[in-house]
Structure formats: structure tokens, C-alpha cells
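I'd like us to work through together how a protein chain folds, taking it slowly. We need material for that, and I hope you will provide a protein of your own picking. Go ahead whenever you are ready, and we will take it from there:
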Amino acid sequence: MDSCEPRPPEFNESSEAYTLFCRGAEFLDGGHPAQASLYLSRALNLEPGKNSIREALARAEFALGRYEHAAQLFEEIVETAPVNDYAHYALARCLRLLGRREEARAHLRLARALHPACETYGRRLDGVD
């Protein structure tokens, strides 16, 4: 699987957290980030160690313009999974919008180094490249 694509969840399909995650992901994919954020926040409260939930919630928060919270969530992913190229890329995007361009540049470079074949990471990110 190309790591530019969303990753599947890593928890029990019969759990309440999984159900909430799936519902939140449906809202996110359907262009309803506010509803997604509600479900995904609840799922993360039940399974605080799951980066799959954290990533989806961060994406919803980013879509809502809550860049500080999205950056915090992506930073947590990077701390626990430093080779997660997507988290580095998404964090770079958040940091850029928060005016933290040098930090953004470092994470963008890491994403590119971790997955050089990903065309998305190779595209110019204004103010960072």
C-alpha cells in the first residue's frame, strides 16, 4: 500500500471505538469534518493509543481550520511512529499555516526522505520549499 493513502485501523472490529472510528471516517470522507471530529474524538477517548484514530481526527481538525490541534495530533503520531511519512507531511502543512516555516521544512524533508516515490510530498509547499 502506498503510504500516501490512508491506513486501515489496527483494532478490534467489534469494539465501540472501531464503530465510532468507522462512522467518523465516513463523515470525513463525505466532506463533513465537524461530525467526523465528534465521532473520532469519542473513539480516541476510548482508544487513546491508536494512531489510526488520531490521524483521522487530525485530518478532520485540519479540514475545520483548527491547525493548532491538528498539528498537536500529528506531532503525537510522529513521536510514537517517527517513520510515518504521512504524519510528517501533514504536520508540515499544519506548521506552515501556523507560520512555523522552519519546523515545517524539516518535517517535509523527512516525509520526502521516508517516501521519495510519493508525488504528493514532492509538490511544492509554498513558503516551505
User: Anything to note?
Assistant: The longest helix spans residues 16-29. Residues 31 and 63 are 9 Å apart (CA to CA). The two ends are 27 Å apart (CA to CA).
